[in-house]
Protein backbone atom coordinates (compact mmCIF):
# COMPACT_ATOMS: atom_id res chain seq x y z
CA UNK A 1 0.00 0.00 0.00
CA UNK A 2 1.17 3.51 -0.73
CA UNK A 3 1.15 6.02 2.14
CA UNK A 4 -2.00 7.62 0.73
CA UNK A 5 -3.81 4.32 0.35
CA UNK A 6 -2.88 3.34 3.87
CA UNK A 7 -4.02 6.66 5.33
CA UNK A 8 -7.31 6.68 3.39
CA UNK A 9 -7.93 3.12 4.49
CA UNK A 10 -7.29 4.15 8.11
CA UNK A 11 -9.57 7.19 7.87
CA UNK A 12 -12.45 5.17 6.44
CA UNK A 13 -12.01 2.39 8.99
CA UNK A 14 -11.83 4.73 11.94
CA UNK A 15 -14.95 6.60 10.90
CA UNK A 16 -18.55 5.69 11.46
CA UNK A 17 -19.67 8.78 9.59
CA UNK A 18 -19.87 7.31 6.08
CA UNK A 19 -17.64 10.00 4.68
CA UNK A 20 -17.77 11.37 1.15
CA UNK A 21 -14.62 11.64 -0.98
CA UNK A 22 -14.69 15.37 -0.26
CA UNK A 23 -14.66 14.83 3.50
CA UNK A 24 -11.84 12.31 3.19
CA UNK A 25 -9.94 14.84 1.09
CA UNK A 26 -10.26 17.47 3.82
CA UNK A 27 -9.11 14.94 6.42
CA UNK A 28 -6.10 13.81 4.37
CA UNK A 29 -5.06 17.37 3.63
CA UNK A 30 -4.45 17.90 7.33
CA UNK A 31 -1.68 15.31 7.11
CA UNK A 32 -0.56 15.72 3.50
CA UNK A 33 -1.34 19.31 2.45
CA UNK A 34 -0.16 18.69 -1.12
CA UNK A 35 -2.54 15.81 -1.82
CA UNK A 36 -4.88 16.29 -4.81
CA UNK A 37 -8.53 15.38 -5.27
CA UNK A 38 -7.56 13.05 -8.11
CA UNK A 39 -5.32 11.12 -5.73
CA UNK A 40 -8.21 10.70 -3.33
CA UNK A 41 -10.57 9.43 -6.04
CA UNK A 42 -7.97 7.09 -7.55
CA UNK A 43 -7.10 5.59 -4.20
CA UNK A 44 -10.74 5.23 -3.13
CA UNK A 45 -11.49 3.37 -6.37
CA UNK A 46 -8.48 1.17 -5.90
CA UNK A 47 -9.34 0.32 -2.28
CA UNK A 48 -12.92 -0.49 -3.35
CA UNK A 49 -11.68 -2.70 -6.19
CA UNK A 50 -9.41 -4.53 -3.77
CA UNK A 51 -12.36 -5.06 -1.44
CA UNK A 52 -10.68 -3.22 1.42
CA UNK A 53 -13.39 -0.61 1.80
CA UNK A 54 -16.87 -0.39 0.37
CA UNK A 55 -18.83 2.24 -1.42
CA UNK A 56 -22.31 3.19 -0.28
CA UNK A 57 -24.29 4.76 -3.11
CA UNK A 58 -27.37 6.83 -2.60
CA UNK A 59 -29.55 8.54 -5.14
CA UNK A 60 -29.07 12.31 -5.37
CA UNK A 61 -26.06 12.20 -3.07
CA UNK A 62 -22.32 11.69 -3.48
CA UNK A 63 -20.96 8.20 -2.78
CA UNK A 64 -19.89 7.48 0.77
CA UNK A 65 -17.14 5.16 1.91
CA UNK A 66 -17.38 2.62 4.66
CA UNK A 67 -15.71 -0.24 6.49
CA UNK A 68 -16.27 -3.64 4.87
CA UNK A 69 -17.27 -5.39 8.08
CA UNK A 70 -20.73 -6.82 7.44
CA UNK A 71 -23.49 -4.47 8.53
CA UNK A 72 -26.56 -2.86 7.07
CA UNK A 73 -27.71 0.71 6.81
CA UNK A 74 -30.66 2.82 7.76
CA UNK A 75 -30.98 5.99 5.74
CA UNK A 76 -33.03 9.04 6.63
CA UNK A 77 -35.29 9.74 3.68
CA UNK A 78 -35.27 13.41 4.50
CA UNK A 79 -31.70 14.48 5.37
CA UNK A 80 -29.83 11.48 3.94
CA UNK A 81 -28.02 10.64 7.16
CA UNK A 82 -26.73 7.05 7.12
CA UNK A 83 -26.49 4.99 10.29
CA UNK A 84 -25.23 1.47 10.86
CA UNK A 85 -27.52 -1.30 11.93
CA UNK A 86 -27.20 -5.06 12.06
CA UNK A 87 -30.10 -7.09 10.84
CA UNK A 88 -30.31 -10.83 10.85
CA UNK A 89 -27.74 -12.16 8.37
CA UNK A 90 -29.59 -13.21 5.22
CA UNK A 91 -26.58 -14.83 3.53
CA UNK A 92 -27.69 -18.42 4.21
CA UNK A 93 -31.24 -17.80 3.03
CA UNK A 94 -29.96 -16.19 -0.14
CA UNK A 95 -27.43 -18.94 -0.76
CA UNK A 96 -30.20 -21.48 -0.44
CA UNK A 97 -32.27 -19.60 -2.98
CA UNK A 98 -29.59 -18.66 -5.50
CA UNK A 99 -26.85 -21.18 -4.83
CA UNK A 100 -23.55 -20.31 -6.44
CA UNK A 101 -25.15 -17.44 -8.31
CA UNK A 102 -25.49 -15.49 -5.10
CA UNK A 103 -22.81 -12.80 -4.83
CA UNK A 104 -23.64 -10.46 -1.99
CA UNK A 105 -26.46 -8.32 -0.75
CA UNK A 106 -26.62 -4.72 0.25
CA UNK A 107 -29.55 -3.73 2.38
CA UNK A 108 -30.78 -0.20 2.97
CA UNK A 109 -33.73 0.69 5.10
CA UNK A 110 -35.26 4.13 4.73
CA UNK A 111 -36.75 5.89 7.71
CA UNK A 112 -37.13 9.28 9.31
CA UNK A 113 -34.23 10.00 11.69
CA UNK A 114 -34.93 11.34 15.21
CA UNK A 115 -33.90 14.90 14.24
CA UNK A 116 -36.17 15.01 11.22
CA UNK A 117 -38.98 13.44 13.19
CA UNK A 118 -38.61 16.14 15.83
CA UNK A 119 -38.60 18.85 13.16
CA UNK A 120 -41.70 17.42 11.61
CA UNK A 121 -43.66 17.21 14.85
CA UNK A 122 -42.57 20.77 15.73
CA UNK A 123 -43.97 21.99 12.46
CA UNK A 124 -47.24 20.22 13.08
CA UNK A 125 -47.84 21.63 16.53
ZN1 LIG B 1 -33.03 13.06 8.96
ZN1 LIG C 1 -21.93 1.66 7.55
Key descriptive features of the protein:
alpha+beta; 125 residues; binds zinc ion; Arc Repressor Mutant, subunit A; 5 helices; 3-stranded mixed beta sheet; 6 strands; 44% helix
Radius of gyration: 17 Å
The biggest beta sheet reads:
3 strands, antiparallel
How many structural domains in the coordinates? 2
Order of helices and strands: HEHHEEEEHEH
- CATH evolutionary superfamily of the largest domain: Winged helix-like DNA-binding domain superfamily/Winged helix DNA-binding domain
Task: Please report the first level of CATH classification, the CATH class of the largest domain.
Answer: Mainly Alpha
The assigned CATH architecture of the largest domain is Orthogonal Bundle
The CATH topology of the largest domain, please?
A: Arc Repressor Mutant, subunit A
Classification by helices and strands = alpha+beta
Overall strand count? 6
Mean pLDDT figure: 93
Bound compounds, please? zinc ion
Please count the helical segments.
Answer: 5
Q: Looking across the biggest beta sheet, what order are the strands in? A: 1-3-2
Percent range for β-strand residues? 15-25%
What level of helicity do the residues show? 40-55%
| Shape verdict | flat
> Roughly how many Å apart are the termini?
55 Å
Amino acid sequence: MTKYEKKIYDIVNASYEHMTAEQIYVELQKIYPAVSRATIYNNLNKLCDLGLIRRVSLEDSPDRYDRIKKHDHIVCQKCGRISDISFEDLTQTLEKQFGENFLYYDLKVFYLCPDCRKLQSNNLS
